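[Discussion] Sanity-checking designs against the backbone

I'm trying to build intuition for which residues belong where. Below is a structure token string of 313 positions. I'd appreciate it if someone posts a full sequence so I can compare it with mine line by line.
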């Protein structure tokens, strides 16, 4: 079982590293193309062309004026469509599996975790954290408003994602470099600080958690209340008390699931429908409860009592 857990975590890490490498190569290729050099099989689009957020801010202008924001390519609208479709299915999976800035924050976080151990990601008092999380909606409103007013991709002036992959070009503003430095240093103390508090794209995608089809679900009937899911969650979501995670901060990283952190099999899962097994001391819901979806029937059949579960030591 331990091996299976490592496999799940490795698949996500491999996916993240593959996208990180792809963006590095595309960015390098774009810069090398001005010297007539081309890396084989790699596109040379600018990062603006492959920025899905560029697509979001363009929608307003496209609808009202029929044109795109400067520097934004049609490709970013296509990318936005793909990311939104994915978000309807499984929330901000883009953040947890694709975004190269999120990946770099996570890699820095691994260093921070080694340094600070249990105190890592616990430096911001919960009462501050609760309010700071609204900041990213303020940033989202500011970006959409100012972009619509100026018809320029204003976010690039403060964008650590753009700065990370272009810092050597001389095109990056000092403000963006400063925010990138603060993000990288902050990641040594707090898991994904930019994602949590400032990212306007994460703010937008997070709203899909309220309506997404596949959700993170916890089966209270088999949960042993060990809180391993809470400790594993990079976004500080209290999974151990939620039957159904609908928090806008969830990035679908799956770290809390029985495939990774939860020691009890089939207790935290990404799924459609709901767990139907009742706690051991609760009365049976009767035969009607197994009349739901195929997934529900499977859960009802296999997950009745904690004692029957496999607990991974
Ligand atoms: S709730 Fe689970 S899937 Fe969502 S961010 Fe936390 S650990 Fe990741
Ligand atoms: S890790 Fe699993 S068993 Fe432990 S509290 Fe979370 S859901 Fe319950």
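Best answer:
Here's mine. Compare freely.
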């Amino acid at each position: 079982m331990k091996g299976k857990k490592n496999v799940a975590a490795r698949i996500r890490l491999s996916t993240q590293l593959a996208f990180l490498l792809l963006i590095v190569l595309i960015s390098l290729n774009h810069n090398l193309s001005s010297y007539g050099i081309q890396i084989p099989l790699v596109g040379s689009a600018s990062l603006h062309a492959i920025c899905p957020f560029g697509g979001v801010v363009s929608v307003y202008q496209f609808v009202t004026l029929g044109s795109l924001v400067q520097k934004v390519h049609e490709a970013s609208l296509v990318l936005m469509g793909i990311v939104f479709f994915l978000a309807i299915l499984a929330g901000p999976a883009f953040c947890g599996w694709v975004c190269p800035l999120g990946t770099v924050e996570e890699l820095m976080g691994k260093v921070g975790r080694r340094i600070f151990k249990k105190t890592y990601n616990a430096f911001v008092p919960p009462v501050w954290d609760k309010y700071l999380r609204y900041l990213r909606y303020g940033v989202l409103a500011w970006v959409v408003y100012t972009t619509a007013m100026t018809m320029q991709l204003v976010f690039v002036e403060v964008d650590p994602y753009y700065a990370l992959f272009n810092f050597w070009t001389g095109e990056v503003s000092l403000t963006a470099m400063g925010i990138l430095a603060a993000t990288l240093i902050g990641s040594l103390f707090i898991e994904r600080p930019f994602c949590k508090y400032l990212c306007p794209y994460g703010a937008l995608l997070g709203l899909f958690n309220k309506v997404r089809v596949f959700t993170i679900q916890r089966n209270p009937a088999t949960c042993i209340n060990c809180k391993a899911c809470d400790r594993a969650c990079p976004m500080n979501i209290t999974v151990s008390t939620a039957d159904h995670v609908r928090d806008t901060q969830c990035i679908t990283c799956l770290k809390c699931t029985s495939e990774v952190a939860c020691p009890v099999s089939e207790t935290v899962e990404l799924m459609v429908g709901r767990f139907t097994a009742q706690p051991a001391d609760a009365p049976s819901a009767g035969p009607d409860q197994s009349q739901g979806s195929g997934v529900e029937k499977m859960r009802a059949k296999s997950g009745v009592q904690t004692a029957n579960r496999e607990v991974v030591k």
